[in-house]
């Protein structure tokens, strides 16, 4: 993504704060470190995607933005001039606050505490080291808390064979995985795998995939403005009506009502 830096760049201890002005456009991006973007101008014509070449309309207002993990790649396009603040957070800083950095992308409304801490960064560059360190650690801790993974998997199985299958499910949640593929990842026969999986996790592999998909969809519904059809596709449902049926069974409500609530 090409941008025009306005020169207001402050290297503060640990994090990198950059205020940028961009002409309409955008493009593909790949992030080497966890990064927070805070919009300083409205973007009613904004399109975005993570891990896909299918962008979705996600209008963002001033003080909206995103929090993305290291390694995130996607596409960002906008049709109006954009002013934004970007904060890059190195992995060691996340580790210092007990965070792995492996969190779900957040796009849309930003936690108000995070916003206030980000907007203070330009003013602490000349402050004492202790104050800078304290403020930066507070920001990183708050980002880690806001973006930490939801506990969608339940207790992790101790059997490393089942762990491999669970990791495969989460890594390829949108794929049409077969029982043979999951059993193969575990190095077990389909029959023995199904029996062991339910005995340990309390759900059949199919029930576990459905629950994980719906709980992932719940996160996206609450943290993004992606259309319901796009969210359904991202968590593995090509049929929106089927997604709605499974969502209602798991939550007792519709995706639209869940988002509104």
Describe this structure in words.
The chain is α+β, with helices and mostly antiparallel strands and 261 residues long. It folds into 2 domains: 144 residues, Jelly Rolls; 101 residues, Arc Repressor Mutant, subunit A (Orthogonal Bundle). Helix content is 44%, strand content 22%. The protein is built from 10 helices and 10 strands. The strands form 2 sheets. The chain has a 6-stranded antiparallel sheet with strand order 1-2-9-4-7-10. Strands 3-8-5-6 form a 4-stranded antiparallel sheet, with no helix packed on it. A hairpin with a 5-residue loop joins strand 5 and strand 6. Helix 2 runs antiparallel to helix 3 and helix 5 crosses helix 6. It is globular, with a radius of gyration of 20 Å.
Helix fraction bin: 40-55%
Give the strand line-up of the largest sheet: 1-2-9-4-7-10
Instruction: Give a quick account of the main beta sheet: strands, pairing sense, barrel closure.
Output: 6 strands, antiparallel
**Number of individual domains:** 2
Q: Tell me the total number of β-strands.
A: 10
- Multimerization status: single chain
Number of helices: 10
The run of helices and strands is EEEEEEEEEHEHHHHHHHHH
CATH class of the largest domain: Mainly Beta
Q: What is the H level of CATH, i.e. the homologous superfamily of the largest domain?
A: Jelly Rolls
């Amino acid at each position: 993504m090409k941008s025009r830096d306005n020169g207001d760049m402050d290297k503060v201890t640990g994090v990198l704060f950059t205020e940028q002005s961009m002409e309409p456009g955008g493009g593909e991006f790949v992030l080497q470190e966890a990064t927070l973007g805070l919009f300083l101008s409205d973007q009613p014509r904004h399109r975005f995607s993570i891990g896909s070449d299918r962008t979705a309309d996600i209008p963002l207002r001033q003080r909206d933005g995103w929090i993305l993990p290291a390694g995130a790649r996607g596409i960002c396009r906008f049709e109006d001039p954009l002013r934004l603040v970007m904060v890059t957070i190195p992995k060691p800083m996340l580790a210092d606050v007990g965070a792995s950095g492996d969190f779900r992308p957040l796009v849309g409304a930003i936690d108000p505490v995070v916003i206030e801490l980000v907007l203070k960064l330009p003013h602490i560059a000349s402050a004492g080291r202790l104050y800078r360190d304290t403020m930066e650690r507070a920001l990183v801790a708050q980002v880690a808390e806001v973006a930490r993974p939801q506990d969608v998997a339940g207790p992790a199985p101790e059997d490393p064979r089942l762990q491999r299958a669970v990791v495969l499910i989460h890594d390829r949640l949108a794929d049409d995985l077969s029982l043979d593929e999951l059993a193969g990842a575990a190095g077990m026969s389909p029959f023995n795998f199904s029996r062991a999986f339910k005995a340990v996790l309390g759900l059949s592999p199919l029930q576990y995939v459905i629950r994980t998909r719906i709980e992932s969809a719940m996160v996206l519904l609450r943290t993004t403005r992606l259309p319901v059809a796009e969210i359904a596709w991202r968590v593995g449902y090509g049929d929106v009506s089927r997604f709605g049926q499974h969502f209602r069974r798991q939550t007792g409500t519709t995706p639209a009502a869940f988002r509104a609530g």
